[in-house]
Design a protein that fits this description.
40% helix; alpha/beta; two-stranded parallel ribbon; 7-stranded mixed beta sheet
C-alpha cells in the first residue's frame, strides 16, 4: 500500500467516524427532547389544576425564550423575573444565591436556552385545561381586531382568560424546570409569571413563582 492509498483510507475512516458520532449525538438530543416533552405534560397538569385554575384556555404553540448576554442591574432581595422572554446570566446567579438552583443546574440551563425550540403541544395529552390552536387564536385577532376578538371569545367561546407558555428550560437531570406563562383577559388585561418547578417523589411541584408584569 503506497502513501496516497493510505491517506485516502485514513480520510474515509475519519469521515465515517465523524458522521457516526454526529448521528449518535443527534439521536441523544432527540431522545432528550422527547423525554423533556413528556415531563412537560405532567408540569402543565400541576400548573392548571392547582395554580392557574381560573384560566380557561391554553394556546398550543409555545413561546421561544432568548438569552440576553448583557446583564441588567438587579435590586431587591429576591431575584426578579426577566422581562418577557429573555434571561441573562445574572438572573441564574441570583437563583443560585437563593439556593433555588445549584451552580451546575444554573450553568446548564442558561447555556441551553438558545437550543430550545418552539413546541406544538399535543391537546390530547392535556386534561386540566382546554386548548386552542395558535393559528386559530391569532386568526380571530387578525380578522376581528383586538377588542372584537376578546368579545368573541367571551360571548361565543365562553373564554375569559387564555394562557401562553414558553418552551420550558430543563435542568440536565430533568428534575428542575423554568417556565414563563402569559395570561390574557383583554386588550389591557393580562399577567406574566416565571415559574420554577422541582420534581420530588416523581411529582412536579411549584417551588417558586415571580410576577413579570400586571396590566
Amino acid at each position: 500500500m503506497n502513501k496516497i492509498e493510505y491517506f485516502l483510507i485514513l480520510i474515509i475512516y475519519i469521515f465515517f467516524f465523524s458522521c457516526s458520532n454526529e448521528n449518535k449525538s443527534s439521536n441523544l438530543s432527540k431522545k432528550q427532547e422527547l423525554l423533556n416533552n413528556e415531563e412537560l405534560y405532567f408540569v402543565l397538569d400541576e400548573l392548571f389544576r392547582f395554580d392557574l385554575y381560573d384560566t380557561d384556555l391554553l394556546e398550543t404553540e409555545t413561546m421561544r425564550l432568548h438569552k440576553r448576554e448583557v446583564d441588567i442591574e438587579i435590586k431587591g432581595d429576591l431575584p426578579p423575573p426577566p422581562p418577557y422572554k429573555e434571561f441573562d446570566k445574572d438572573y441564574f446567579s441570583r437563583l443560585v444565591e437563593r439556593k433555588i438552583l445549584t451552580n451546575e443546574e444554573a450553568n446548564y440551563m442558561f447555556k441551553n436556552i438558545d437550543t430550545i425550540k418552539i413546541l406544538t403541544l399535543d391537546s390530547s395529552r392535556i386534561n386540566s385545561i382546554k386548548t386552542i390552536d395558535s393559528k386559530e387564536l391569532s386568526g380571530y385577532f387578525k380578522k376581528l381586531g383586538t377588542d372584537s376578538a376578546y368579545n368573541y371569545l367571551y360571548k361565543v367561546k365562553k373564554v375569559w382568560e387564555f394562557a401562553t407558555i414558553s418552551t420550558p428550560i430543563f435542568s440536565e437531570k430533568r428534575d428542575k424546570l423554568i417556565l414563563i406563562v402569559h395570561t390574557s383577559c383583554g386588550g389591557t388585561c393580562g399577567e406574566g409569571y416565571v415559574y420554577i418547578f422541582a420534581k420530588k417523589n416523581k411529582k412536579w411541584k411549584i417551588i417558586t413563582k415571580y410576577t413579570i408584569f400586571v396590566s
